[in-house]
Structure to design on (256 residues):
């Protein structure tokens, strides 16, 4: 599992002469910081301040992740703990939607964003992230394991529905929403917004990085440095919550 990570770190410090050796070497022989120096020079020459690209990516990642966790948790609570007409049909639609790859829904998504007037805005990326069916499915499967008797006892004691959800259900399913934060954040962190965003001031860090490494073989070292920098944040977030991810994946298919 760690081999690709080690290889990415090693490549970031390789000079061009080592990057093109065949067969590839895992470890760098003559480490250098030239790749990072070249990257910083290109950042300084970009059309927009580099901080703007970074802010756009952080804003999209945080807003999209927060909205996704809130929407998925609330919807999962209703589907799991409340009986109403059409509940099973709604959940079946959610499960069915998991079968569709993003490439299949790309054109319908664009048409919807265009009708709403959200093309060339961050909303075209953030709002669809809120409605990701994977998060809803994951949260519902975990909430199904929370005993109904525990919630009924809280209601008898006078707890409101929102208090039951906030103080009992959410803490109980903490591994699930922590895992959801990781999955959503990683997905949005790498979002280029190429289908929806055209204004330079709204573009994201991955887009800016991809443009910097598009200069052919001469930019191979810069590309290796970019790969390492783009990997650091999501990997760090994952390592911090690794135990919760393992717990969630081992129990998310169970129901109470």
């Amino acid at each position: 599992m760690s081999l690709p990570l080690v290889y990415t770190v090693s490549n970031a410090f390789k000079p061009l002469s080592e990057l093109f050796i065949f067969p590839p070497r895992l470890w760098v022989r003559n480490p250098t910081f030239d790749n990072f120096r070249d990257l910083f020079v290109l950042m300084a020459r970009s059309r927009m301040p580099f901080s703007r690209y970074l802010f756009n990516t952080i804003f999209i990642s945080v807003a999209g992740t927060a909205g996704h966790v809130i929407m998925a948790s609330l919807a999962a609570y209703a589907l799991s703990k409340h009986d109403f007409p059409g509940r099973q049909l709604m959940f079946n639609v959610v499960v069915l939607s998991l079968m569709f790859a993003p490439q299949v829904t790309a054109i319908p998504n664009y048409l919807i964003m265009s009708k709403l007037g959200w093309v060339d805005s961050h909303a075209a990326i953030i709002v669809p992230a809120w409605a990701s069916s994977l998060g809803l499915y994951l949260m519902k499967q975990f909430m199904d394991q929370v005993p109904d008797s525990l919630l009924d006892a809280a209601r008898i004691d006078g707890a409101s529905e929102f208090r039951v959800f906030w103080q009992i259900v959410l803490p109980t399913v903490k591994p699930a929403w922590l895992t959801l934060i990781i999955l959503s954040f990683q997905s949005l962190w790498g979002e280029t917004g190429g289908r929806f965003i055209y204004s330079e001031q709204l573009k994201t860090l991955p887009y800016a990085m991809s443009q910097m490494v598009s200069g052919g073989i001469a930019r191979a070292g810069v590309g290796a440095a970019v790969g390492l920098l783009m990997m650091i944040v999501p990997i760090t977030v994952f390592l911090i919550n690794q135990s919760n991810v393992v717990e969630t994946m081992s129990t998310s298919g169970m129901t109470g």
